[in-house]
Amino acid sequence: MSEKDCGHHDEEKKKLYRRLFALLLAFIILVLFVILLIWLILRPTKPHFILQDATVYNFNISTSTNMLTSNFQISLSSRNPNNRIGIYYDRLDVYATYRSQQITLPTLLPASYQGHKDVSVWSPFLSGNNVPVAPYIGDSLTQDQMAGTVLINIKVYGRVRWKVGTFVSGKYHLNVNCPAYITFGGKTSNGFGVGPGIKYELVQNCNVDV
Known about the structure:
single chain; alpha+beta; 8-stranded antiparallel beta sheet; 6-stranded antiparallel beta sheet; 14 strands; 25% helix; elongated
């Protein structure tokens, strides 16, 4: 075979490879376009979280050392409002804050899948023993308790994925903030005794960002 024939043969192979690459690229673009189109049509709606209740077992501040000890159990529900989209909760950490300072350790909720229109309910314990707080936070907490109402925020931080048919999206950050107004003593208290704790029926809508 002459050098001319070899060069022609190599050129044909290059053309074939370019065509195959172009076809593969076009196929990938088509698949991505279809996924994007389905995504835009369905447009997932973020889940709806509600803080159902909170049971307080311990919530004390040591004014001499500015150490806060707290122990709660909460009931938190989540509803998937989508008709055709499921939600994978890959990781959810729940913790409590007071005046933007975290006062309990994060509690990890089990990974789960939530189908269309399904409701999930979790009842984790949240605790923090001798958590150091800034002096002004200790003073504010003492004043709030004397006034009869303390605002505690239950927060959820995690990662979720959306499921549309057989397609599963990448991971998205989930941030949930649930205000819990706890009243102490007197006729205005909204709590009642449950064993060693005091249970507060809240049914409070949460702010959700995805």
